[in-house]
Every structure is written in structure tokens, then in C-alpha cells.
Amino acid sequence: MKKNKLEELIQNNKSIIVPGGGTALELRLAELAGFEAGYVSGYATAAAAYGVPDVGLIALNEIETNVIAIRGSTSFPLIVDCDTGYGDIPNVMRTVQKLETLGVSAIQLEDQKWPKKCGHMEGKLIEPIDIAVEKIKAAVYARKTKDFKIIARTDARSPHGFKEAMKRLEAYNNAGADILFMDAIETEDEMKIQVSELPGVHMVNMSETGKTPLMPANELEDIGYKIILFPSSMIRIITKQLSIFLSDLRELGDSSSWLDRMASLEETNLALGLEEINNTVNKLRS
């Protein structure tokens, strides 16, 4: 993977659709499906990798461990949700240094107070703007190269309104953030105002059943969004479908009715890269 692949994608005329996941399998499948980048979601990491809700229970070392596994089974650019940076300025700098060393392309930092919550939950507490700006400046300062992108996310829309969220994104842009993200933005009109009035690269979040209206990617591209996230779609599908399957299995004691909805053993091994491993082993033994 080229070091500046995400930058190349951003510079293209088209928007990037980026699915999010919390495990190496999810992101590997996303790459195999042809997506050009993946998103390591804090929500999905908490849910899929650790089985807990997204309420500030995941720390840097747990994100780092998860990213190592995901990076080891994927090659496309990764955007990593790093919550609030896991502390104050020194913590943010350490977060940047660790994630950049792991070979990810961008990290996302938000302006909630710790313990943070999923952006579409109620009861979020927002940091003072001066503290949030300091963290963005610290992240920009700590990175080794501008190829490593800093995404500034504001969660102020829900608790403090659209005007305050716009004020914060402008401040984060001035602090050096590369990409701007207003989580839980509530209307299409707000989206258009955000993109038209604030310079820079914009990212939007399509979180099903959340506060932001679901819109097709082509319409979001027309508004001017460059990165279109689907951060938790996979974990929600997994949760729903596994629950149905397990209910059936408990009731019937038989999985045969699910065969047409399962990958075969061969299909699963192919997705996991077994054929490539076997080919390499055979080549080295010949």
C-alpha cells in the first residue's frame, strides 16, 4: 500500500464510501468486496472485539491491539476512531505516534468529555472549545508526516446546536485538522451549509437508526462530502442475524435451514486467505 493512498483517494473527484468494523474479519471482507478504505469504528470495536457498549470502556491499548490484528489482514487505507485521544495533550500525542507507527492512514479525534459515548446517544458532555483545539494542535504536531491525516469530529450538534458545532469545526480547521466531521448532523440543509460555508475536506456518518438522515452516497457526494462512513452497519447486521440464527438453533437443534445463508467452509477459507498461504508454502517447498 502506498503511504499516501488515502490522500490520493481524497484528491480524486469522486467520494469514498468507507465501511466500518471492529474486527479483522469485517475489514478484510470489506477490502475483498472492493472498498478502497476501511474504518476501525470505536463502537464496533467495543461491541465486536470486547462485547461492551460504546461508553468509554475501551482504552488506547485495546484499540492498538485491535488495529494490529486488522492491519495484519488488510492492505487498504485504515481510518481509526480514537475517541477523545484517551486523555490530555500528552495522551493525544502518544495516540498519534502509536497509530501512525502501525501504518494507518488517519485517526479521528472527537470533542466529548471522558467517558465519551456513541455520538448518537443522549447525554453527551462536550469539552470546552479551547481544550479541544489544543488537542487538534497536539495531534498535528505529533505526527511525522502530513500523509497521516487528522480528522476532527465535533459532537456538539446534539447538545449545543448546529451553530456551536459549526463554530467548533471552523476552529478545528484553523488548528490544522485535515478532515472535518460533524457527528449526528440532523438535516440535509445542515449538511449543505456545513460543506458550503466551511473550507476543507468533509466526512459524514451514515449511522442507521441514528440522528442523521440516511441518504444515498451519490446525493452526499453532490452535497460535497468526500468521505462517506457506514461505521456500524456490519456489527448491526451481525447482531441481528446471529441472534435470529441462535434462536433458531436453540429451538430446532438444526442448522440446515441456514445453509443457503452461510458461507461454505471453502468460501470461508478463501476469504481468510488460505489459498494464498498454501500457494506460498508450495512455492517455497518446490
Description of the structure:
By secondary structure, the chain is of the alpha/beta class. It has 2 domains: 5-239, TIM Barrel, CATH 3.20.20.60; 257-286, no CATH class. The protein has helices at 5-11, 24-32, 42-49, 60-73, 89-101, 129-142, 157-160, 162-174, 188-197, 217-223, 233-252, 265-271, 274-285, and strands spanning 16-21, 38-40, 78-81, 106-110, 149-154, 179-182, 201-205, 227-230. The chain has an 8-stranded parallel barrel with strand order 1-2-3-4-5-6-7-8, surrounded by 9 helices. Helix 10 links the parallel strand 7 (201-205) and strand 8. Helix 2 packs parallel to helix 4 (60-73). The mean pLDDT is 96.
Fold topology:
Layout: H1 5-11, E1 16-21, H2 24-32, E2 38-40, H3 42-49, H4 60-73, E3 78-81, H5 89-101, E4 106-110, H6 129-142, E5 149-154, H7 157-160, H8 162-174, E6 179-182, H9 188-197, E7 201-205, H10 217-223, E8 227-230, H11 233-252, H12 265-271, H13 274-285
Helix pairs in contact: 2-4, 5-6
Tell me the number of strands.
8
Residue-averaged pLDDT: 96
N-to-C order of helices and strands:
HEHEHHEHEHEHHEHEHEHHH
Distance between the termini: 29 Å
Number of helices: 13
**Assembly state:** single chain
Give the biggest sheet: 8 strands, parallel, barrel
Spatial order of strands in the largest sheet? 1-2-3-4-5-6-7-8
Structural class by secondary-structure content: alpha/beta
The level 1 CATH classification of the largest domain is Alpha Beta
The CATH architecture designation of the largest domain is Alpha-Beta Barrel
Shape: globular
CATH homologous superfamily placement of the largest domain: Phosphoenolpyruvate-binding domains
What do we call the CATH topology of the largest domain? TIM Barrel
